[in-house]
Amino acid sequence: MEKADSCRRAAYDAVADVEPPELHDYIEASLAEASMVPGVLTIESAAATATDGHSVLEADAPPSENGAEYSDELDDTSGVATQAAGVQLIYEGLRLTRVLAHDEPWIENGAGGESAETGDLEILAADILVARGFYLLARTDAAGKAVRTVQAFGRDQSRRTMGDGGETDPATIDANLERDILELAVLTGAAAVGETPSPRLLATVDEIADRVEAPFPPAATYLADLEPTRSEQSLEEHPTDRATSATDP
């Protein structure tokens, strides 16, 4: 799948300078096995929103009407595939954090065991993944949504750990991350081509969110129905700036 490969390559590039080698290799192996749903949805959203007919994989993110400032010379964080990698990296970091929160190797195996050492590596990798994802989205209109996504994740996991009287299934709480990441991907993709998501795109993503799985399955099967042809896009559609989670303030 070309879009998944493009996103994965951009994600590799974003973490290419991570040291020491053991940490770099762990992060790269995690990305090699990761579902590229967040990144592919970002690229698909840009394609569905763009109106000028150029390839979104070669597009640079223009200044938005909301006043986002860009330098005179756009750097390598501007491409749609690179912004897709930003969404992907944030998801991978939070997903790994969720795994560690549910099965803490430090508690079960003691502070000095081999599993605990692996846990130390994993939590460091998770922090780096989220930080690099933020860096790639920092100069885009999706930056605020990225921050809110991480904040919502923290609140959800705290609520899951403390319990809420059994009123909410823990699996439902966990799936909020995937739902928020889908929304972040749509907003990032649309913003990358200087637009906001159309009602049709948002409706399609709502359908995807209704069958969300935690973690995401392979992108090729999960997003099979998303990619519309340009002839299917209505010229009468008007953009909307709805792409926020119910957990957003």
Integer-rounded radius of gyration? 18 Å
Shape: globular
Number of helices: 10
The domain count comes to: 1
SSE topology string: HHHHHHHHHH
Number of strands: 0
Task: Describe the protein's architecture and organization.
InterPro entries: DUF7114 (IPR055538). By secondary structure, the protein is mostly helical. The chain has a single domain (about 1-60, about 75-230), classed as Orthogonal Bundle (Farnesyl Diphosphate Synthase), CATH 1.10.600.10. The protein is about 60% helix and about 0% strand. The protein has 10 helices and no strands. It has helices spanning about 1-15, 20-35, 35-50, 80-100, 105-110, 115-135, 145-160, 170-190, 200-210, 220. The longest helix has 24 residues, at about 115-135. The radius of gyration is 18 Å and the shape is globular. It starts with a helix and ends in a 27-residue tail after the last helix. Mean pLDDT is about 80; it is low at about 55-80 and about 230-249.
Please render the helix and strand layout as text.
Layout: H1 2-14, H2 21-33, H3 37-49, H4 80-102, H5 105-109, H6 114-137, H7 143-162, H8 170-192, H9 199-210, H10 219-222
InterPro entries: DUF7114
Region (Disordered): 225-249
Biased composition (Basic and acidic residues): 227-241
